[in-house]
Write a structure and sequence with these properties.
This protein is of the alpha/beta class and 350 residues long. The chain folds into 2 domains: 136 residues, Up-down Bundle (Four Helix Bundle (Hemerythrin (Met), subunit A)), CATH 1.20.120; 202 residues, 3-Layer(aba) Sandwich (Rossmann fold), CATH 3.40.50.10470. The strands form 3 sheets. A 7-stranded mixed sheet has the order 6-5-4-7-10-13-14, sandwiched between helices. It has a 4-stranded mixed sheet with strand order 11-8-9-12, covered by helices on one side. Helix 6 links the parallel strand 4 and strand 5. The two termini are 33 Å apart. Bound molecules: 5-S-methyl-1-O-phosphono-5-thio-D-ribulose. 5-S-methyl-1-O-phosphono-5-thio-D-ribulose (MRU) binds next to helix 2 and strand 9.
Length: 350
């Protein structure tokens, strides 16, 4: 990719830089994020998006938030600020559990730091944010390596939304399988759902796959069933925003419909996600909070009015695919075949 999804510049008083994903693919603009308020906004409006990338952004957001505490202040003041900043960032988006996971890690690192000065604690927090970032990159590579064998020469693959490098530290989750298979020399065709209403598939997934030289065809979301019936799809691979203890997986709105279609056509449906996307405190998918977004995203696609004034709009950003529809989940540890509560638990405890 032309620029990293997100990077940190400088030391504890530095700032984050990220590709503004709302402008892609027409413009590749790197924006500086210099306060926790700016990071909250970047997450909310999807300048940075995709579950793992949201987690990394939030971790750096914490580092930005605690900059407001002077280095000379007592360490207790920094601990109080940390709690405030984590609560604030936690309210940016509700569904991707990586956000809460990353904030939890940041708090834990501070609690167990065993340091006595504010300066030292700020350094611990920056180190932890960088570790979250680095580890995500490694998990994505491992997911690619663990799942690439599922793609055979000549396959047609359907994907929904964007689970690529832009949604993670780099390399992606669902797209990691494709990048790895491509690096192994396999030829295959990807069909990318455009992913209404915000077009992450059209704007981001096709952009990433084209750059990698992978054969990709853009389709409207409502064309997937037709393609399956025509025999053009051999497998489906998507990412996830939160996977409950029983394997039910929340992902971009429309994923559930794709999974149902895949089952009806006897096509394997895979989810690729790091362990940071699992939420074992949530027993099943019905408990996963689903983000409701601005009605204008539906009524005014790309800012153009496409529906009558004041028409009622329903705009959930995610849906849940029950585990019965998932052939396997690919993580950095390997594969969870036919996921259910027992299989998820034993896999994550490996
Ligand atoms: O609303 P978004 O663009 O943040 O939604 C992103 C998705 O649904 C992705 O598929 C998911 O986060 C997995 S990213 C590796």
């Amino acid at each position: 990719m032309t620029a990293p999804t997100i990077k940190w510049t400088g030391s504890t008083d530095g700032h984050a830089e990220l590709i503004d994903q709302t402008l892609l693919p027409c413009e590749v603009r790197v924006v500086s994020v210099k306060s926790v308020k700016e990071m909250w906004h970047a997450i909310k409006v999807l300048q940075i998006r995709g579950a793992p990338a949201i987690g990394i952004g939030a971790a750096y957001g914490v580092v930005l938030g605690v900059q407001e505490v002077p280095d000379s202040a007592p360490i207790e003041q920094l601990h109080d600020k940390l709690t405030e900043v984590c609560d604030y960032l936690a309210a940016s988006r509700p569904t991707a559990v990586n956000l809460f996971w990353a904030l939890g890690r940041m708090k834990k690192s501070a609690e167990s730091a065993g340091v006595s000065t504010t300066v030292q604690l700020k350094e611990i927090l920056l180190d932890e944010a960088k570790a979250i970032h680095r580890e995500d990159a490694a998990m994505c590579r491992a997911i690619g390596a663990n799942g690439a064998h599922l793609i055979a020469e000549g396959n047609g693959i359907l994907t929904h939304c964007n689970a690529g490098g832009l949604a993670t530290a780099e390399y992606g989750t669902a797209l990691a399988l494709m990048f790895t298979a491509h690096e192994q020399g396999k030829q295959f065709a990807v069909y990318a759902d455009e992913t209404r209403p915000l077009l992450q598939g059209a704007r981001l997934t096709t952009w990433e796959l084209c750059q990698a030289g992978i054969d990709v065809t853009l389709i409207c979301d409502n064309m997937a069933g037709h393609l399956m019936k025509l025999g053009k799809i051999d497998l489906v691979i998507t990412g996830a925003d939160r996977i409950a203890a029983n394997g039910d997986a929340a992902n971009k709105i429309g994923t559930y419909a794709v999974a149902v279609l895949a089952k009806a056509h006897n096509i394997p449906f895979y989810i690729a996600a790091p362990s940071s996307t699992f939420d074992l405190a949530t027993a099943g998918g019905d408990e996963i909070p689903i983000e409701q977004r601005d009605p204008r995203e539906v009524s005014h696609p790309l800012g153009q009015q496409a529906a009558p004034d004041n028409v009622k709009v329903y705009n959930p950003a995610f849906d849940v695919t029950p585990h019965e529809y998932i052939t396997a989940i690919i993580t950095e540890k390997g594969l969870i075949e036919s996921p259910d509560t027992a299989a998820v638990k034993s896999h994550l405890c490996k």
